[in-house]
Amino acid sequence: LRDKDSAGAPAAPRAAPEKTRMPLGTLLFGTGLWLTLLACLATGFAREGVMTWAPSIITELYGSGSLSAAVIPLIIPLINLLGILFGQALIRRANGRLNRVMQFLLALAAISAAALSILRNGQPALLLSFLLGVLCALMYSVSTMESVMVPLEYCDTGRVSFVAGLCDCMIYIGASLVSVLSGALQESAGQQAVYLSWAAAALIAFGA
Description:
Layout: H1 2-8, H2 24-30, H3 33-62, H4 67-71, H5 76-93, H6 98-118, H7 125-148, H8 160-176, H9 178-189, H10 191-207
Helix pairs in contact: 3-7, 3-8, 3-10, 5-7, 6-7, 6-10, 7-8, 9-10
């Protein structure tokens, strides 16, 4: 009876074979991951630069006691959310072509940052505020794609989690450079140079 029961019992499901992990050297240089990480570094620098400097720029422009100086920094999270939603809409419209969408957003970001550098003494103030908001939304959207969606493109390597961690790490490293580099640029060449550094970072991410 024991043999009969064993023969009639359904076979236990076999565990799925573990996917072979690609060697680190091949992952970094064979797949072009190092270029993706460079883009993440540049994106983190531009994103954090805008988010760090925007409140102080707005306050200096409108005055610390004005309603605009108090309200605009508070709506930055909403602006970032709108950037993410805009990016998602573009991805759906582009049939999932993530790289194309990211390049489009980065091109818009570079143009916005370059336009900021053209404004003299932050005037007109409304245009400067609009460009800062657009730039903030665009860079936040791109950085979210880099940390969430780009790693999924490395499924075949067996290292999706590792790639996601590297992308996040490079974004935060780029963000950590803002206080030092942007401060030095403002002291040596003025605020226009800071805007141009954001444009350069967006172009580096675009090219990578």
